[in-house]
Write a structure and sequence with these properties.
Elements (H helix, E strand, L loop, with lengths): L1 H36 L15 H198 L12 E7 L5 E9 L3 H13 L15 E6 L2
Antiparallel strand pairs: 1-2, 1-3
Helix pairs in contact: 1-2, 2-3
Length: 322
């Protein structure tokens, strides 16, 4: 605050000095003009102009703003320098940390290699001791096996002699038993073959009888199915002819004065029931009655189709009765 007050006082003194000089200069200017014009004024002319506070303070404010801008620039440069120093310190610290980690890793790897070498050395020493012990055990085992083998060979020789005697006795007994068994087996096989042959013949006879029965049953079923089919086709055929007869009867018109009660008709038709030809074979009536029946068939076209396509025929014959 004292430094700022001193700056303000210095700035105010300088400004006041400039104002006084300006006033003095203003007062002397008319006298000089008069002297130059050759006229001496009877009284001195004083001209003065008031200086506002704003005019007085404007230079001070401008200087203060310049000083403030300079201070901000210096502070910004200092902050930038501090930021650069911090960044450099951080970089150095990071580099030191990486170097320390690398050094620690190298030391750890070296320690691991040393530990591995010690472990390999210990394993080799343990393996060598184990080999020595294993060789000693193997030698003792070979010696024990040799003793046991020798004793076993002696025992085996004695046992072989006893076995040979026993085997000779057993062989003789075995041959006798084998001969008896062979004869018994031959007899049993002969009986078994005879029984098998008898059973095979019996089985063949039963199978033949069964095949005959099955064939007869199948033939009976086929005959029954054929009869049922024929009966069904006959029923459908009668129904089909009855439908045609009824449709023709519905389309028949009796001529006036004609006579007749029965007419046998043959019809030629297409697969869709369309009538293409009608012939009356026998009629007990006159010609007018015959023509009326033929016209009725044409008017009934297309004729009904059968329920089963197997019954369809291009030529149909039926007896028409009014």
């Amino acid at each position: 605050m004292d430094a700022r007050r001193e700056r303000w006082l210095a700035l105010g003194g300088a400004t006041l000095l400039h104002v006084l000089l300006l006033v003095l200069f203003t007062l002397e200017l008319p006298e000089r003009e008069a002297e130059q014009a050759g006229a001496i004024p009877s009284e001195p002319v004083i001209q003065a102009r008031a200086v506002t506070e704003e005019e007085v303070m404007a230079p001070m404010r401008a200087r203060e703003a310049a000083e403030e801008a300079e201070r901000q620039r210096i502070a910004a440069e200092r902050r930038a320098a501090a930021e650069r120093r911090r960044a450099e310190e951080q970089r150095r610290a990071e580099e030191q940390r990486r170097q320390a980690e690398a050094q620690a890793q190298r030391e750890a790897e070296a320690a691991k290699r040393q530990a591995d070498a010690r472990r390999v050395e210990q394993e080799a020493r343990r393996q060598a001791e184990a080999d020595v012990q294993r060789q000693a055990e193997q030698e003792a085992r070979r010696q024990a096996e040799a003793d046991a083998r020798r004793k076993a060979e002696e025992e085996a020789r004695r046992q072989a002699e006893a076995d040979a005697r026993r085997k000779a006795e057993e062989e003789a007994q075995r041959k006798a038993e084998a001969e008896a068994r062979r004869r018994a087996e031959a007899e049993a096989q002969r009986k078994a073959e005879e029984e098998a042959r008898r059973q095979a013949e019996e089985q063949a006879r039963r199978e033949a009888m069964l095949r005959e029965q099955l064939a007869a049953e199948e033939q009976r079923l086929q005959e029954e199915a054929r009869q049922r089919r024929m009966s069904e086709l006959e029923r459908l055929q009668n129904a089909y002819v009855a439908q045609i007869r009824d449709q023709v009867r519905r389309n028949w018109l009796r001529p006036d004065g004609s006579r007749g009660t029965l007419c046998q008709v043959v019809i030629q038709q297409l697969p869709d029931g369309e009538v293409v030809d009608v012939r009356a074979l026998q009629c007990d009536g006159d010609a007018a009655f015959q023509r009326s029946v033929e016209n009725a068939v044409y008017r009934a076209s297309p004729l009904p189709l059968p329920a089963d396509r197997e019954l369809f025929s291009r030529e149909i014959q039926f007896n028409f009765r009014p």
